[in-house]
Amino acid sequence: MGAVNLLLDTCTFLWLVADPKKLSAHAVDLINDPDNLLFLSEISIWEMVMKYQAGRLPLPESPRTWIPKQSTFFQISHQAVTVEAIYLSGELPLAHRDPFDRLLAAQCIALGMTIVTPDKPFKKLGSKTRW
């Protein structure tokens, strides 16, 4: 298939580092393929920080420390949010209203990336998905 730029959904990143048995076999194969490049969006980082602050995401350390450690260990690059993705997120179908997911979907579309996610609404928003 060739190398693919894979954007990890927030849940995919969390499961990869803390509960890998929740990943599908196909997701594991994609993540472990040395030809594929792995990315974590700044949007997912923001989502984890907000959930941690609200007490809904327990982490062993603060997100400022924990997320970079895990990203480095798993060789995951951070993907910046683009203005194009922000605009596009407001132009996507109203099939799914979660602002984090809308931004992630828009980012994938704008940058030609594939998101690794079990969440079906991403397809309704028009992004390429794998699971």
Provide a descriptive summary of the structure in words.
The structure is a single chain. The chain has 131 residues and is of the alpha/beta class. The chain has a single domain, classed as 5'-nuclease (Rossmann fold), CATH 3.40.50. The protein is 49% helix and 15% strand. A five-stranded parallel sheet has the order 3-2-1-4-5, sandwiched between helices. The model has no long low-confidence stretch (mean pLDDT 95).
Essential attributes:
alpha/beta, 131 residues, single chain, 5-stranded parallel beta sheet, 7 helices, Rossmann fold
The radius of gyration over CA amounts to: 14 Å
Q: What general outline do the C-alpha atoms trace? A: globular
CATH superfamily: 5'-nuclease
User: What portion of the residues fall into strands of 2 or more residues?
Assistant: 5-15%
- For the report, how would you describe the main beta sheet? 5 strands, parallel
Distance between the termini: 15 Å
Number of strands: 5
**How much is the average pLDDT?**
95
Q: What's the total helix number?
A: 7
Roughly what percent helix?
40-55%
- The CATH class name reads Alpha Beta
Please state how the strands of the largest beta sheet are arranged side by side.
3-2-1-4-5
Q: How many domains make up the coordinates?
A: 1
